[in-house]
Specification:
180 residues, two-stranded antiparallel sheet, 9 strands
Length: 180
């Protein structure tokens, strides 16, 4: 619902849309959530999310998920794994999130960041869970655009997020994958 204030300028009345600087055009999205791993496709997804956030005055949250099971070899003790491997994964994640924050800041957007661990759960499900907890109304994710056997063996987090998310998902395909 659109509500006019005393100054004649529309304000958000709690409806799904709010207004940006243009009183004639409601913003489509208020909270944009971006799963980010620093790869080429995720950078393209981040750039798209930054552009959307800028054009609609939306809040932007960039998240990095640690998949703890990737670093486990089974040969190290848990104490060593927790002390060394997980610590290194967290440092890597913080560095990747710093890159995302810097990229958003250069575009004039203040991005929030979030580092979380999968806890052994499905990565796509955890991403959707965190987007929902933050009350995102859009997820923007980069995708390699794999098809055939590579997609079958490697899976597609983007595809699973599209399937699981109750909010819209914008999948940004890697530039060279889109050209194929």
């Amino acid at each position: 619902m659109l509500v006019k204030t005393r100054g004649g300028r529309p304000e958000d009345s709690g409806a799904m849309h709010r207004f940006n600087d243009s009183p004639e055009r409601p913003a489509m999205y208020q909270r944009i959530f971006v799963p980010f791993d620093g790869s080429g496709p995720s950078l393209q997804g981040l750039d798209q999310a930054i552009a959307l956030a800028k054009s609609s005055s939306a809040r932007l949250r960039v998240a990095y998920e640690i998949d703890e099971l990737i670093g486990a070899t089974g040969f190290e003790s848990y104490a060593i794994y927790a002390r060394d491997v997980l610590a290194a994964m967290r440092r890597t994640g913080e560095g990747i999130l710093a890159l995302a924050r810097e990229r958003a800041n250069e575009a004039g957007i203040a991005a929030e960041t979030e580092l979380f661990e999968s806890g052994g759960h499905n990565i796509a499900a955890r991403i959707v869970e965190h987007a929902m907890l933050w009350q995102a109304d859009l997820i923007v994710i980069g995708s390699h655009g794999r098809r055939g056997a590579p997609r079958f063996f490697m899976g597609s987090d983007a595809e699973n997020i599209v399937r699981l998310a109750p909010m819209p998902v914008l999948v940004v395909r890697e530039a060279h994958a889109a050209a194929l």
